[in-house]
Amino acid sequence: MNELVIVSGKGGTGKTSLTAAFSALAKGTVLCDADVDAADMHLLMQPKICQTTDFMGGGQACVDPQVCTQCGTCRDVCRFGAIDETFTVQPILCEGCGVCVDMCPEKAIGFEPQKCGEWYLSDCKYGPMVHARLGIAEENSGKLVSLVRKEARNLAEQKGYGLILTDGPPGIGCPVIASLSGATALLIVVEPTVSGIHDMLRVAELASHFKLPGMLCINKFDLNPEMSDKIADIGQKHNMPVVGRIPFDSSFVQAMVAGQNIFEYQPESQLSKTIQKIWTQIIGSPAMNSMGVLDLQSTIR
Q1: Cβ contact 177:142 at 8 Å
Q2: SS (H, E, C) the chain
Q3: pLDDT of 213-269, one tens digit each?
């Protein structure tokens, strides 16, 4: 089982548009949207949801007034001021740390898991898709990312698919770490700016920590060719080759507004041809074949 995770050091670099474009080129592929904090792949894939499952995350404290003696211990130990004078837990202030549950001498505080979101098994125009929606201001996004990737792998095994295409979260936090573990290879989408290089290096160091082979794709490379060359040099030092350079093209945005990937919007454009070459480079790369050789012809539509 091979999994390509597409990430970026920050949001807005075009990784979701690229993932959607790659899905139009690949076959025998399960799509996975692991950017659960700001999921948007469904806007381009227009999936038909086949199964919806609640995601139960961290607990929230709840005082049982029948058992509570109002000794005040819970209010003393709560650092977030979540328990008021009437010994009622204020949900918006409770961080779910559980200290009050452990310290209550009467065991009067429960800690039931809460629904934090939903995850979905869907069919879309290019195959099965696993995605999720995290509730507003809810935490445990790393756990939801791990769950979504696990279900994508189970689905791929059931259907006999050899590749999972995962749209990962931006940054280097817990959701990103959850999206990288056990993957075959990583594609970092980077823009040719000073901050873009900084963000790319952070993700590259994270990939190196997990011993995960990586590749680079420079989006809007022609806005700063010198910086793009610098990114390529840095990538070579980190053993992360540049598999493609995408020029600035407003068609990407226009396709997104139309709810389509670039191959649906402008299949014969130069931009589409560029992305097709990038996909061929990715599938044939040593990074994607480090855990077993992929049949190139059977993985391209």
Answers
A1: yes
A2: CEEEEEEECCCCCCHHHHHHHHHHHECCEEEEECCHHHCCHHHHHCCEEEEEEEEEEEEEEEECCCCCCCCCHHHHHCCCCCECCCCCECCCCCCCCCHHHHHCCCCCEEEEEEEEEEEEEEEECCEEEEEEEECCCCCCHHHHHHHHHHHHHHHHHHHCCCEEEEEEEECCCHHHHHHHCCCCEEEEEECCCHHHHHHHHHHHHHHHHCCCCEEEEEECHHHCHHHHHHHHHHHHHCCCCEEEEECCCCHHHHHHHCCCCHHHHCCCCHHHHHHHHHHHHHHCCCCCCCCCCCCHHHHEC
A3: 999 999 999 999 999 999 999 999 989 999 999 999 999 899 999 999 999 999 999
Q: What is the pTM of this model?
A: 0.85
CA dist 177 and 300 (Å) reads 28
User: How many Å apart are CA 207 and CA 284, to the nearest integer?
Assistant: 20
